[in-house]
Amino acid sequence: MSLLDSLSGLLGGGQGEADGASSLVNVAGQLIQQAGGVQGLANTLQQHGLGDAVQSWIGNGANQAVSSEQLGQALQNGGLGSVVQEAAGKLGVDPGQLVGQLSQVLPHAVDHLTPDGQAPAGGGGFDLSMLGGLAEKLLAARGG
After folding, report:
1. Could you tell me the sign of the dihedral formed by the alpha carbons of 31, 68, 99, 61, in that order?
2. Could you list the pLDDT tens digit for every one of the 144 residues in the chain?
3. How far apart are CA 19 and CA 41, in angstroms?
4. Could you give the CA distance from residue 69 to residue 16 in angstroms, rounded to a whole number?
5. Which residues contact 86 (CB under 8 A, 6 or more apart)?
């Protein structure tokens, strides 16, 4: 099952794939924003055992996968669990399911925000519009 097939299932109901992908990208953006930007999220994940993975997302090589359990634990221990809980409530999905999807989308979001292979200095100034086009990119990758 592809990422976007599972997005449709997770966020299904009346939403189409594009809406589901956009919703998930928005949740990823909210996590990055609440963490204090890409560097803040990277620091949080590094402190909770995902340093190698997050560095691969920032760097120019292949993105290292993380399991939903690893990501969920790092977010919870890093003080971002409430963001996931709130987003899951708004979307009407189980937080565990949402973290499962985020474990697939968050590497792409961080990668998208670090095209030069480095996290932007200083966490301030991040806004969700910086992730514009990521949902479409994920949908296009599925179609190819």
Report:
1. positive
2. 444 444 444 444 444 566 777 888 889 999 999 999 999 999 999 999 999 999 999 999 999 999 999 999 999 999 999 999 999 999 999 999 999 999 999 999 999 899 888 887 665 556 667 787 787 787 777 665
3. 25
4. 27
5. none
How remote is the C-alpha of 108 from its chain's centroid? 7
All structural domains of the chain, each given as residue ranges with its CATH number in brackets, are 37-143 (1.10.10.690)
Q: Return d(Cα 125, Cα 8) in angstroms, integer.
A: 31
**What's the pTM?**
0.80
DSSP 8-state class, residue 128: G
CA angle at residue 142 from 41 to 45, to 5 degrees? 15
- Per residue, what are the HEC states of 28-48? HHHHHHHHCHHHHHHHHHHHC
